[in-house]
Amino acid sequence: MRQREGKLTTVELAGLRQYLNQANNEKIKDDEFIIINYITSYPVIEPQETLSSWSILNKSFYNKAQKLAPGKMFYIYNQQQPNAIYSYKRKHIKWFSDKDNYVLKLLFPAEANYGNAAVIRQTVLL
Questions:
Q1: Is the entire prediction scored with pTM above 0.90?
Q2: Sheet of strand 115-120, all strands in order from the earlier edge strand to the far edge
Q3: How much is the pLDDT for 42?
Q4: Of 69, 76, 84, 100, which has the maximum CB count within 10 A?
Q5: Does the structure show a pLDDT above 80 at 6?
Q6: How buried is residue 18: exposed, middle or buried, by Cβ count under 10 Å (0-12/13-18/19+)?
Q7: What is the span of the domain harbouring residue 17?
Q8: How far apart are CA 44 and CA 56, in angstroms?
Q9: pLDDT reported for residue 36
Q10: Beta strand extents in the chain (DSSP E only)
Q11: Where are the alpha helices (DSSP H) in 4-121?
Q12: Structure confidence at residue 126 (pLDDT)
């Protein structure tokens, strides 16, 4: 598993918040974590009748993530793979397309197979 740490500039964070707020119609509070689950343009494409067993899709994953990093969780897919989303759909998840690859360019410059994830803390710990 690849891990990378970094910092968004104030401008980048503001732009990301605005993008996510508009795309999802949810206001992100200043003290909330932003958790992004991202399907790349190279996902595992399951047979049409099969749903993926990827752990981020389970309700229990959301609950565990909220205990570790309370905030908003976003599920985003690369616009180059609109049909791949079928095997990742769940009733409790609202997926949206990454218009113009905004999130991909900002957070995941080295695109990997399958998917990426990011946890963003907006406040500075003292």
A1: no
A2: 95-98, 71-78, 33-39, 115-120
A3: 63
A4: 76
A5: no
A6: exposed
A7: 10-120
A8: 14
A9: 92
A10: 33-39, 71-78, 95-98, 115-120
A11: 10-24, 59-68, 102-107
A12: 44
Q: Which of 118, 45, 59 is nearest to 88 (CA)?
A: 45
Specify if 42 maps to a domain.
Answer: yes
Whole-number Å distance between alpha carbons of 73 and 101: 18
Cβ neighbours around 74 below 10 Å, total: 22
Q: Which two tokens stand for residue 87?
A: 């095997």
Q: Which residue has the tokens 């003290």?
A: 31
Is there a domain that residue 100 lies in?
A: yes
Q: What would the two tokens of residue 93 be?
A: 């998840």
SS3 72: strand
Q: What 3-state DSSP class applies to 47?
A: coil
- CATH code where residue 27 lies: 3.40.30
Go through 19-35 and write b for each residue having 16 or more CB atoms within 10 A of its CB, e for each that does not.
bbeebeeeebeeebbbb
